[in-house]
Amino acid sequence: MLDHLLSLAIWVPIIAGIIVALVGSNGARANIARWVALVGAIAGFLVTLPLFSGFDRLNGGMQFVEFASWIPALGLNYHLGVDGISVLFVILNAFTTILVVMAGWQVIQKQPAQYFAAFLIMSGLINGAFAALDAILFYVFFEGMLIPMYLIIGVWGGARRVYASIKFFLYTLLGSLLMLVALVYLSRMAGSFAILDMQAIPQIAQTTQILIFIAFFMSFAVKVPMWPVHTWLPDAHVEAPTGGSMVLAAITLKIGAYGFLRFILPIVPDAARFFAPVIIVLSLIAVVYVGMVALVQTDMKKLVAYSSISHMGFVTLGMFLFVNGYLNDWGLKGAIMQMISHGFVSAAMFMCIGVMYDRMHTRNIADYGGVVNTMPKFAAFMMLFAMANAGLPATSGFIGEFMVIMGATEYNFWVGMLAATTLIFGAAYTLWMYKRVIFGAIANEEVRQLKDVNGRELLILSILAAAVLGMGIYPEPFIAVVHQAANTLIEQVAQSKI
């Protein structure tokens, strides 16, 4: 069974999702569906734990590799494997899926079986995208996961859910078509669709690299999302149910950034160097300008959505810091740490907003005030997550930001200084929201009637708090897993330098 851990990570949640959908939502079956979904999510997480415990931290290559012929006539294979970069995202995705099922336990009354089934199936597809070593297999998983998220937003979302779901789908789909063209072209050069073979292609002409870079960039930049192709994200977050926002921010955005690490940097490194100044500028705009945009938001979800764009700007900044022509060690590893941390913190922030929305049915900051008087336990948890979102030391939010700022300063002092402004803007918009919502006198009777977190909500927030504090206080286990794989990527890029 240890030989097929990645297949289990993919297919256990997918099969569980199908079973949940078959159970249905009629009458007493709805509760059965909820329990089956929870068991499926927990099983999906448990099968990923040996990936972490059995991972060889001194090996920078692919581990837990699986290979089987898929469509021989087309040269397509069911080829899976993870390195120190992708293994953490598989585990993070499975971890988040459990929380999402718990978050929607009582809240989702409309077709709960189909709701949970969509998340479980999407969880398996996302794991497939992180584990795929065949380019077309990656593309199938990459595109396939759009369908459950489209349904989650479009069926269980807010008043403008149809508009948001269509915008989300079209933005991400159109960018991906260019990626497919690039993958087919690279397969002709490599002689196969294996991603590792594509990375091993002898020096590709600079002009060709630039064209391939543009094709990949159009797909992955939308997914991150980078400024200025970010406008679909605030709409999607605002309209999505709480679970949809948690997965969207914690996991799906990371697949775009993962694409930079798996395809762009190792396959077209010279084009990455050529475009690095442009990416750095776009990333700094996301960090500074989008941080300012977050400051003026009146909707809590939209504020945190813009916060996510700003934090993901840190990720792309760290990935494209080339010092003396070589990838920056601090920046690259910091970007990966920031992706993991953002998964915890963003999920926690959206969960907190969901807790309040379930009680008040409004996300407007002005409708709150004095929540600490009626929900003291909740206020304490939200304070921790707000501080993590602002990058407070001893929380996970500090680790990646500190490393990227170190790398940016090594690249250029002024770039480092601009990157560091995220600590100012992050504190400004997050604490401003927290102050208006939580502190002060009770604003209205609805706030006065609020009940503090129940057992289910307390468990979810406690798990997220443990993750945020655990990574912030002792990040070494995460860095140790990433270290060798990041060094291998740096060597790949360095060796191809012309």
Describe it.
The chain is mostly helical and 498 residues long. The protein has 21 helices and 4 strands. Strands 1-2 form a two-stranded antiparallel sheet. It is globular. The model has no long low-confidence stretch (mean pLDDT 87).
Looking at this protein, list some descriptive labels:
498 residues; mainly alpha; two-stranded antiparallel sheet; 21 helices; 4 strands; 73% helix; 4% strand; globular
State which percent range the strand residues make up. under 5%
Write out the strand line-up for the largest beta sheet, numbering strands in chain order: 1-2
Most strands sheet: 2 strands, antiparallel
| Structural class by secondary-structure content | mainly alpha
Helix content estimate:
over 70%
The protein's oligomeric status is single chain
Shape by Cα distribution: globular
**Termini Cα gap:** 44 Å
- Low-confidence blocks of residues: none
Helices and strands, in order, run as HHHEEHHHHHHHHHHHEEHHHHHHH
Specify Rg, calculated over alpha carbons.
Answer: 22 Å
Output the number of helix runs. 21
How many DSSP E strands? 4
Mean pLDDT metric: 87
